[in-house]
Amino acid sequence: MKRILSGMRPTGRLHLGHYHGVLKNWVRLQNEYECFYFAADWHALTTEYKTPQNIIADTREMVIDWLAAGLDPERCVLFVQSAVKTHAELFVLFSMITPTPWLERVPSYKEQQENLSDKELNTFGFLGYPVLQSADIAIYNAHAVPVGEDQLPHLELTREIVRRFNHFYATELVEPQAILTEMPRLPGIDGRKMSKSYGNAIMLSDSPEEMRKKVMTYVTDPARKRRQDPGDPDVCVLYNLHKIYSTDEVKAEVQVECRRAGIGCVDCKKMAAESVLRFHEPMYEKRRQVEQETDVADVLAEGNRKATEEAEKTMTGVRAAVGL
User: Fold this and answer.
1) Is the dihedral of CA 40, 112, 151, 186 positive or negative?
2) Which of 117, 188, 221, 234 is deepest in the core (most CB within 10 A)?
3) End-to-end CA distance of the chain
4) Secondary structure class of 76 (helix, strand, coil)
């Protein structure tokens, strides 16, 4: 069975965007591949190095969401990046052979500096995080990484680093391939990208009542100032929820009735809320069960053990090849 590696930065509770962008695919892939999924706590420090105090608690919350969404520790390895010290060892070796211009051309480098202008990101850690990312993947000889199209440049850089390392040291580290995954656009309540930092997110751990309340505050077609004004679902932020959650029958009804003002925005929101709740309520119940019955620390300890064992196999060969 081919191997997959993927990770998430621990930022606490996850929202619907995380589920549809990443988690949903992770759950599916665990039935088709040997999967290693990790909490990327070192990566979190590249931007949050001044406030690391929440990382441990955020990691636990994130892993609970993973388990509630359907990840099964019997079918995939769940671990914490910093618990497997050989990630850092391979990162150091990779950094010795990675040209600086390769890192400076990464599309997200300048983009993130602009988007996070309130943070001091002129650090080696931030510049070099793609090298650490490459080590994360290569140390497990992952055959593939699930990514969206916007992340392809990062994976190609990993392939270049691995290829260069193999050339210098006659190693046989695997050049990972991309598994392109559809990442549907799910805007937040205010129409911007769904983000906890914007305060516009519906969290996976929100109760059904909280989810319903948040759906009812979604922005809609700005042209519908009055109940009798016809609308256009295709420009309505709320309709993105219908696209993902509602049945074809409900979507067809909304398309017709909104355009002829047969239903109002409140009616449309109620329909969307029912669709969202129908999908996520079982996950909410699963989360409550996990919190009551699962020792997350034990799950991660076992995952850390398995990941360390596999990573050490790779590093034993790498050390010998480099001459260390």
Assistant:
1) positive
2) 188
3) 31
4) strand
DSSP code, position 194: P
Q: Which residues contact 125 (CB under 8 A, 6 or more apart)?
A: 45, 46, 49
Using DSSP's 3-state secondary structure scheme, residue 74 falls into coil
Distance CA 258, CA 231 (A): 5
> Rounded to 5 degrees, what angle do the CA atoms 159, 105, 173 make?
15
SS3 content of the chain, % helix, strand, coil (to 5): 60, 10, 30
* Cα gap 132→112, rounded to integer Å: 17
What local confidence, expressed as pLDDT, does residue 108 receive? 73
Q: Please say if the pLDDT value at position 138 is more than 90.
A: yes
For the chain, give the mean pLDDT: 94
Residue 9 tokens read as 């930065």
**What is the secondary structure of 185-252 as a DSSP string?**
--B-TTSSBP-GGGT---BTTS-HHHHHHHHTT----TT--STTS---GGG-STHHHHHHHS-HHHHH
Q: What angle do CA 236, 240, 243 make, to 5 degrees?
A: 125
Number of Cα atoms under 13 Å in the Cβ half of residue 60 = 10
Tally of helices (H runs) and strands (E runs) in the chain = 15, 5
- Distance (Å, whole) CA 112 – CA 122: 11
Read off the pLDDT of residues 19-33 as tens digits, 9 standing for 90 and up: 999 999 999 999 999
Residue 256, token pair as written in the block = 């017709």
Hey, what are 113's tokens? 């500096």
pLDDT tens across 227-270, in order? 989 999 999 999 999 999 999 999 999 999 999 999 999 999 99
Residue 233 amino acid letter: P
Angle at 138 between CA 2 and CA 322, to 5 degrees: 130
**Quick check: 185 pLDDT over 90?**
no
CA distance 23 to 60: 16
